[in-house]
Amino acid sequence: MEHREEDVRLGANKFSERQAIGTAAQQDKDYSEPPAAPLFEEGELMSWSFYRAGIAEFMATFLFLYITVLTVMGVVKSESKCSTVGIQGIAWAFGGMIFALVYCTAGISGGHINPAVTFGLFLARKLSLTRAVFYMVMQCLGAICGAGVVKGFGKTLYMGKGGGANVVAPGYTKGDGLGAEIVGTFILVYTVFSATDAKRNARDSHVPVLAPLPIGFAVFLVHLATIPITGTGINPARSLGAAIIYNRDEAWNDHWIFWVGPFAGAALAALYHQVVIRAIPFKSN
């Protein structure tokens, strides 16, 4: 209660009653926008923190594929899904690992663990092109290694049960699969933007948030909805890693969907958040 008078003065009574709602609040912010990242950042390639961040992305994506694909294999090897964790368990494995890994790596690399997330943040000028490409390469390498370790535990099971590769399920068209990937990735990347928005630090935000929690929960919910359609990609590195290690025609026939869909969804989320929600292109410096 000792700061109550100051809070009132800075909050509800800060602007006159005749002032248009929101206009002065937008002009006198109590939070700061991070500067836009340059396309190419000089000296970045000479910094250890740059390579440390890439290693963190590699390890996070490696662990992500290891746990999630191993969970998938545990479900598909059983004839009765009642004796396994089922689709809900798979969804929890994906969402839970994202929660844990984003929490662990956010302070080092930003905790992307997904080329689509990296692409969306790059479009919003949150990181340089050099860093974005480096992250995507390390994410894909980590995913390949993670899926490879799972295959090493049981090659016969892995190759006989689809290897966790993403495919469009029977009864659905390629358009259905593409739409599911676009919308699913939009939900994920929009959640990333919202959970990491600088405005969360504003006095009037009233929504304290642990960023990894809503991000992981978004991944969980998208998996619940789209596992029956595509197995849920929304992460090109995850799809590529499983496809390369499984390496059969069915894994490659629709593989383009798991790149085009997530990248399109990420671009739409970046556009929606930056232009519609935050109106950043229309703000004066």
Highlighted features:
mainly alpha; globular
Task: Explain how this protein is built.
Helix content is 63%, strand content 0%. The longest helix is centred in the N-terminal third of the chain and has 29 residues, at 48-76. The chain is mainly alpha-helical and 285 residues long.
Topology:
Elements: H1 4-10, H2 23-27, H3 48-76, H4 86-105, H5 115-123, H6 129-153, H7 155-160, H8 174-195, H9 212-230, H10 236-246, H11 249-253, H12 257-277
Spans of at least 5 consecutive residues with low confidence: 7-26
Question: How much β-strand is present in the residues?
Answer: under 5%
User: In this structure, how is the largest beta sheet organized?
Assistant: none
Intertermini distance = 36 Å
Rg estimate, integer Å: 21 Å
Fraction of residues in helix: 55-70%
Order of helices and strands: HHHHHHHHHHHH
What structural class is derived from the secondary structure elements? mainly alpha
Classify the oligomer: single chain
Shape: globular
